[in-house]
Amino acid sequence: MLMCKDLAGIASDYIDGELTGRRNLSVKMHLMMCKHCRSFIGNLRASTDLMKAHSSSKPDGEFIRRIDERVAEALKTRKPRDGDNE
Amino acid sequence: MNTAVHPDPQGSLIEDLKRGDSSAYKKAVREYSPGMLAVARFYLDYSSAEEIVQDCWVTVIDAIHKFEGRSGLKTWLHRIVANRCKNKLRSSKREVAIDFSESLEPELANRFNATGRWDLPPSLKFHESADTLMENDALSDCLDKHLSALPETQRSALMLYEAHQHKSEDVCNILDVSASNLRVLLHRARQKIFLMVETFQETGEC
């Protein structure tokens, strides 16, 4: 029988849909009966969403402009290769 | 209406990059730099990450002719960024060894009794959306602190898989880890973030 500790060990696999067949079914059955594990799965999902929201900040235009400058400079000294337009 | 003029728009961009076409570079820089910066940010502080991304684009000019298209361009670029960041870190910081046989964080494993049931159940309550919560500067700073304290492979696994929605096989390819080890990395990283947010909510401290 699947215990809470076992479920906690495979919670990410369950969230990501990586469990198959009997194992997935045993997690679902356990979750129906166990509010702490339901809460753990919810907590793990929500923490991950928080991390995603936190890391989705966009770089500013100045950063892109500096890359354009570096690339333009490097393209000037780029060695020609086969397949380049004559 | 079918407006496609090229069967593979990314293939056309790659060909233009290989020819050293400057407008193709401008287009690619705009499309891919935000993701590349986000990859670098999980290894390095902001200014070092920006520097790495700039350096990578210069590297790309010479390396693009070796790109064979086995992975997507985005995956290839992220891999270059990740490798550069790892090299930079290698000289300054030692990687923490991860025990791949253990899927539970010790701090979480201690919260079960001898029969494997919860002794100290999870207590996190979410009444607001993730975006609203992130307006809390203290929580945001705390997340920053904990993300940067994660072992680098855990941090980048989490970020590549979650924030950039790379497929598992691409993340394995970028980080050079097996599929089963990736599962452990992701799970351990998520537990640490959960434990951190739980402590923050309970105590208000990071």
Key attributes of the depicted protein:
heterodimer, A: mainly alpha, 5 helices, B: 206 residues, mainly alpha, Rna Polymerase Sigma Factor, Chain: A, 2 domains, disordered N terminus
Describe it:
The complex is a heterodimer of chains A (86) and B (206). By secondary structure, chain A is mostly helical. Chain A has one domain. Chain A is built from five helices and no strands. The radius of gyration of chain A is 25 Å and the shape is elongated. Chain A starts with a helix and ends in a 10-residue tail after the last helix. The mean pLDDT of chain A is 87. Chain B is mostly helical and 206 residues long. In chain B, α8 (152-163) packs across α10. Chain B folds into two domains: 9-92, Rna Polymerase Sigma Factor, Chain: A (Orthogonal Bundle); 106-203, Orthogonal Bundle (Arc Repressor Mutant, subunit A). In chain B, 65% of the residues lie in helices and 0% in strands. Chain B starts with 8 loop residues before the first helix and ends with a helix. The longest helix of chain B is centred in the C-terminal third of the chain and has 25 residues, at 179-203. Chain B has helices spanning 9-18, 22-41, 46-63, 73-92, 106-109, 130-133, 137-149, 152-163, 168-175, 179-203. The chains are: A mainly alpha (86), B mainly alpha (206). At the A-B interface, α1, α2, α4 and α5 of A face α2, α3, α6, α7 and α8 of B.
